[in-house]
Amino acid sequence: MQNLENRDIRQRDIIPPQKLAQCRATVIGVGSIGRQVALQLAAIGTPSLQLIDPDIVAIENLASQGFLEDDLGSAKVHATASMCHQINSQIDIQCEQNRFRRSGAVGNIIFCCVDSIATRRIIWESVGRNAEFFVDGRMSAEVLRVLIACDPTSRANYPTTLFAAGEAYRGSCTSKSTIFCANVAAGLMISAFSNYLRAVPIDSDLNINLLTNELAIVHSL
Hints:
Layout: H1 17-20, E1 24-28, H2 32-44, E2 48-52, H3 61-65, H4 76-87, E3 92-96, E4 109-112, H5 117-126, E5 133-140, E6 143-149, H6 152-157, H7 179-198, E7 203-209, E8 214-220
Parallel strand pairs: 1-2, 1-4, 2-3, 4-5
Antiparallel strand pairs: 5-6, 6-7, 7-8
């Protein structure tokens, strides 16, 4: 078997391996954004990954979420875990094919990739505010938003983004989805995670419209 010791050699100055080794990442929701987040976490060498999602891969998930045709009918967590293991055979993955539960154990790093504001609020109030690093990815068609909470200022800001259900179109990632927007959102979330590991400044609230090439930075840490 080939020696994989240097699999991360080109990223070590960007993603410090000693810091990464201390992380147990939880991805809540492995649909459009969450699946891409999980694959990137596997690729960078995250040692432990927890995937939480109750859903089954359906035909409408192929184009927008990047699942394989062979995944149809499989649990999203298992299909995602399988691909993660193909990327990184050494990663430890825990699959939970159910909805997020307040009482469930999670990692110290949380990627929130769910569809509703109500669920985001439950996640934040039960486990998010105590996470070492918390990031929420939201998407609608070609518009995305990435929110980070990892210090007192950003932790105070995040609850203000849990807007009323009537405004939920701003945070939905299922009604209109594109794989390229999901990949951009996931990349920004992993980039913020990398910045956190290096203790460099992080933009805590990013809004990007890919159609019009507009970028808005609401807060910086």
